[in-house]
Structures are given as C-alpha cells and as structure tokens.
Amino acid sequence: MSFTVYLSGEIHTDWRDEIKHGAAAAGLDVLFTSAVTAHEASDAAGDCLGAESNAFWRDHKSSKVNAIRTKTLIQQADLVVVRFGDKYKQWNAAFDAGYCAALGKPYVTLHDDDIVHPLKEVDAAAMAWATTTEQVVEILKYVVQ
Question: Is the pTM of this model over 0.85?
C-alpha cells in the first residue's frame, strides 16, 4: 500500500531524516511531505506581498502563505507525525495537531516524556504517542505492510 505521511513540527534536529531513512530501509512505500523547514524562508514567505514595517503584519502574511502549503499537505496525508522538541515551543505543531483532530485526520505525536503534561490534550486526540523515531517507523511498518 502506498502511504503519504506529513511530518510536522520541530525543525532543529534531524528527526525527519531518521524516519525517512528508517522507512526506506524497511522498504516501505511512503511519500513524506513537510512544511518548509528553512526557518528564514518560512519567515519570509509573505515578503513577496510587500514590505511591512510592523513585524506582526510580516508574520501574519507569511503564516497565511505558509498555511497554503500546510493545509493542503495535511489534507492530502494519510497520517501526520507531529514532533515536539525540547528547545523551543512549537505552537505551529500544536496547531497542526488540532487541525488534524478537527479534520479527523490520524496523527501520531513524537516527544519526550518530560512534556507529557503540557501536551495531554494533544496526545489524547492522537492515535499514538512515540518517544523515538524508531517507534514511528515501527508504526509505519505495521500500517503500510
């Protein structure tokens, strides 16, 4: 079975590559999609619409342009993996998880156990909570094979 997985969340570690490599090593027919992970490019996504002197409006325009990609790819995905790292608060990842819940789109959260409490509602709506990328790959093996 062919499967599309959207990888959402934290952009400061190589967790996406670990999942992609694990799926490839297992011979899984999985297409991975993601938001733009280059922080500067994401922040500048709306700059083509004109310069802003107020940072709020620059962020507002860029978030809307980014949402075109994010919403489309989440809607097209069979599964979403939402990664919460420990270095920064990933509000966008929480929003993506909420969007998945609203759509009835299955998602798996990926985070350490030290942030279980603040993510309790996000985890409660998830199909699974994983603490390692290897666990995510095992879920994909089960679902796809």
Answer: yes
